[in-house]
Specification:
Helix 1 packs parallel to helix 2 and helix 6 runs parallel beside helix 7. 39% of the residues lie in helices and 17% in strands. The chain has an eight-stranded mixed sheet. Strands 2-3 form a two-stranded antiparallel ribbon. By secondary structure, it is an alpha/beta fold. The longest helix is centred in the middle third of the chain and has 17 residues.
């Protein structure tokens, strides 16, 4: 398969064929993100993509899952995405899932009718980096939208029938009152957006990023493991939508935890409380075992 630069995908797309539709991310300004820094952003042509699909057919035969890389494939023109989806489903008779990362700004540029057409053509899942529901924090980490715009991006995807996984960042606000403000605002935006999945990652400063520089300069402080768990607990306590599948098993997290809210809420909170109230921290991942 042909790829340019480093390739990233959600951990739930581990068994998907990765089709690189864009090189890099159209936004690429988030202070915490170290992805896509090695290549300037550009889109690939349809002829290139059809060649890659034929290569994948020759190599894999039939496929059930495809993930469209890189960081913001939804930015492609709608007619091009529709042609691409048609090509994929024609080539792979068993195809049942096509997912992609979506940026909030690029998503908002699509009309609801465009998003609905993409869903009808077989776009099944979108991964939206929400990070937080806190307006001030969204501005400081340079997401490019405010909380209302982020909420609308998610709502439009859901209204179009696309399965939405919202990704949030534990610890991105730093310690103190900002942590609780972030957790409460994140629960609030989830309650309004109503994603199908909520995936939590723990912020991990990457060398070369603005956030890493802020950490080195002392203008940003990382949460310790227990304060990160308190932030997660606050989010659980304040999410009211039902059902919501929570996925917190990413390698960056101190405590691998997953479940369905509201069904498993008390069990998930109790799991955190047991660690917070005990001196036994064996359930926590060590710093050496955490990663991106």
């Amino acid at each position: 398969m042909r790829y340019t630069g480093n390739i990233f995908r959600p951990f739930s797309e581990a068994n998907s064929y990765l089709l690189q539709c864009t090189i890099g991310c159209s936004h690429n300004q988030c202070t915490f993100c170290g992805m896509y820094k090695d290549q300037p952003f550009r889109t690939r042509g349809m002829d290139e993509l059809k060649t890659d699909i034929r290569m994948a057919k020759d190599h894999y035969g039939d496929l059930e899952k495809v993930f469209l890389c890189d960081g913001d494939a939804i930015i492609l023109p709608t007619d091009m995405l529709l042609e691409l989806l048609h090509e994929l489903y024609q080539t792979f008779p068993s195809l049942r899932h096509v997912g992609l990362y979506v940026g909030p700004t690029s998503t908002l540029k699509k009309s609801l009718s465009e998003l609905s057409a993409l869903r009808a053509a077989g776009l099944t899942k979108a991964y939206l980096g929400v990070e937080t529901g806190d307006d001030d924090l969204l501005k400081s980490i340079k997401k490019g939208v405010n909380a209302s715009q982020m909420r609308d991006a998610g709502l439009h995807l859901i209204q179009a029938g696309i399965n939405l996984s919202a990704m949030v960042l534990l610890g991105i606000a730093g310690p103190g009152p900002a942590s609780e403000k972030h957790a409460l605002a994140t629960a609030h935006i989830c309650n309004e957006m109503k994603p199908h999945y909520l995936a939590a990652l723990t912020v991990t400063p990457v060398p070369g990023t603005v956030l890493y520089h802020q950490l080195q300069q002392g203008t940003f402080q990382l949460l310790d493991a227990l304060d990160t768990l308190k932030e997660m607990k606050c989010i659980f306590e304040n999410i009211t939508i039902d059902p919501l599948k929570f996925v917190g098993t990413h390698a960056s997290n101190y405590l691998p935890i997953k479940g369905t809210l509201q069904k498993d809420k008390q069990q998930m909170i109790q799991m955190i409380d047991d660690i917070l109230s005990s001196e036994n921290r064996s359930a926590l991942r060590s710093e050496q075992m955490r990663g991106l």
